[in-house]
Design a protein that fits this description.
Radius of gyration: 16 Å
Helix content: 40-55%
Largest sheet: 2 strands, parallel
Strand order of the largest sheet: 1-2
Strand content: 5-15%
Shape: globular
Number of domains: 2
Structural class: alpha+beta
Distance between the termini: 27 Å
Length: about 110
């Protein structure tokens, strides 16, 4: 179990470094800018970042909205999966395939419950 002050990307690196995402499209938020160095991917979707001196143009804003509309569905699905105890506790599964199976089963149960 991680404390609330631990950044999501640090947790991601500890849990998923070395896993193969090459068959997946990966949607992340701006907190995961270093993901290009950590995983292999087929397509990576990171929103554009604006600043006070260089604001986003209308096209970049539209693209960011498309990305966020996909990500919000994922965030809700993760929230539904976390209702299962196996994903809320410190996981001691050392075999990656068993952990993948647990995630898949919780995902299927969450979808079935809908």
């Amino acid at each position: 179990m991680y404390q609330g002050c631990v950044h999501d990307f640090r947790i991601f690196k500890e849990l998923f470094t070395g896993m193969d995402f090459s068959a997946l499209k990966v949607y992340v938020d701006l907190g995961f800018l270093g993901i290009k160095k950590v995983v292999k991917y087929i397509e990576l979707f990171i929103p554009f970042k604006g600043s006070k001196k260089k604001p986003l143009n209308a096209e970049q804003i539209a693209i960011n909205r498309q990305y966020s509309s996909v990500r919000i569905g994922v965030e809700h699905a993760i929230g539904r999966m976390k209702s299962y105890f196996i994903l809320r506790i410190e996981n001691r599964m050392r075999i990656i395939q068993k952990l993948n199976d647990a995630f898949q089963i919780c995902g299927m149960l969450a979808n079935f419950k809908m």
